[in-house]
Design goal:
Blueprint lengths: L1 H10 L2 H22 L8 H29 L8 H10 L2 H37 L4 H4 L1 H38 L1
């Protein structure tokens, strides 16, 4: 088991640690210390998986929900993807800056999700007082549906990035030939 863990840790990039694992740990601990919700087990391997998955969900929420909203309200503006590819091939710091940018987006997502969790708890308490239990009775279904939607959009977005990257590389190859 120790050897397997060592192999897994060696394959996890710093990007995955800071963009998936760290926000997952932070969110789980926010739940524990701010809201009294402890979902940790005594098994550190299970906790590691939970941290990573929660962080991945937070990252996807940042990418699929928060980023488009911030673009729509013109808080952020990205360079054209072909310019990004060209600049990152010239200056490796561009990739590093992009990774840091994504980490900040995921941390923003972490704190927004913690805030929304508190809002949902408050709404749930109000609904229970008024005997409206639909959300409580169907929370598992709702969570699964939301995760399916979130990762469907994530898959589409990532596929688009891969396609744009391939097109950019092939375009560069044709220019260089």
């Amino acid at each position: 088991m120790e050897e397997i863990l060592k192999q897994i840790v060696e394959k996890i990039s710093s990007y995955n640690i800071f963009n998936n694992l760290y926000p997952g740990i932070l969110f789980i601990y926010l739940l524990k210390f701010m809201f009294g919700i402890n979902i940790l087990s005594d098994n550190w391997f299970e906790n590691l998986i939970v941290f990573y998955f929660v962080g991945m969900v937070l990252s996807r929420i940042g990418s699929i929900i928060i980023e488009p909203i911030m673009k729509k309200i013109k808080v952020i503006k990205y360079a054209p993807y072909s310019d990004y590819v060209k600049a990152s091939s010239i200056e490796p710091l561009v990739d590093t800056l992009s990774e840091v940018n994504n980490i900040y987006r995921t941390l923003l997502s972490t704190f927004i999700c913690a805030f929304m969790y508190k809002v949902c708890i408050t709404i749930n308490e109000i609904c229970l007082k008024n005997e409206v239990t639909f959300l409580q009775e169907n929370k598992d279904w709702i969570l699964l549906i939301l995760l399916i939607i979130l990762f469907s959009f994530s898959y589409v977005k990532q596929t688009s990035y891969v396609r744009k990257r391939v097109e950019s590389v092939l375009k560069k190859e044709n220019i260089d030939s």
